[in-house]
Amino acid sequence: MLSRPHKNFYHQATLEIQAGMRDEGLYARCYAKSQGNEAKALACYLDERAEELSIIATKAERIRQTKLTSQSKSIKRPKPKARRTGFGWAMYWIYRMVLIPVFIVVLATAVISTLTK
Predict the structure, then answer these.
(1) Which residues have C-beta within 8 Å of that of residue 30, sequence separation ≥ 6?
(2) What's the gap between Cα 87 and its chain centre?
(3) Could you give the CA distance from residue 87 to residue 6 in angstroms, rounded to a whole number?
(4) Are residues 10 and 54 in contact, defined by beta-carbon separation less than 8 angstroms?
(5) What's the CA gap between 102 and 89, in Å, rounded?
(6) Confidence at residue 92, expressed as pLDDT on a 0 to 100 scale
(7) What was the pLDDT predicted at 49?
(8) Which of 54, 59, 48, 57 is nearest to 22 (CA)?
(9) How far is the CA of 46 from the CAs of 19, 24, 86, 114, in angstroms?
(10) Which segments of 75-99 does DSSP mark as H helices, in order?
(11) Mean pLDDT per 10-residue run, the chain (117 residues)?
């Protein structure tokens, strides 16, 4: 046992015994360790059960933290749009407002002249 379980786990183990919901396998092991002494078997059972409850709670917390971490990674945040400033912005508008319409007019003129021949 690396660290002592929190007192809440001992309380929970006591409540389980009072409700008649003890782990019979664990109790049998503690009874064997105590060589048939009921008081020692009960004390051993409470220690072992509190340790089990502590381990279960620790694993549940790790799983919860893992889920929270994976959920925060999976949230898709929109990337900010690059702003065009200075000369790049001017070239964009020249291309969009001047060159494209000129290209369309030249292309339409070429098609019309081809069709009229």
Answers:
(1) 40, 41, 42, 44, 45, 48
(2) 44
(3) 66
(4) no
(5) 19
(6) 76
(7) 92
(8) 48
(9) 14, 12, 74, 97
(10) 86-94
(11) 72 90 91 92 92 90 84 70 68 77 86 83
Q: Do the Cβ atoms of 11 and 54 come closer than 8 Å?
A: no
Residue 80 confidence (pLDDT)? 73
What are the residue ranges of helices labelled H in the chain? 7-18, 24-33, 38-74, 86-94, 100-116
Q: What tokens appear for 87 in the block?
A: 């000369």
Domain spans, the chain: 7-74, 79-117
Q: What are 25's two structure tokens?
A: 């396998």
Token couple for 100 = 């494209």
Residues 55, 9: Cα–Cα separation, whole Å: 10
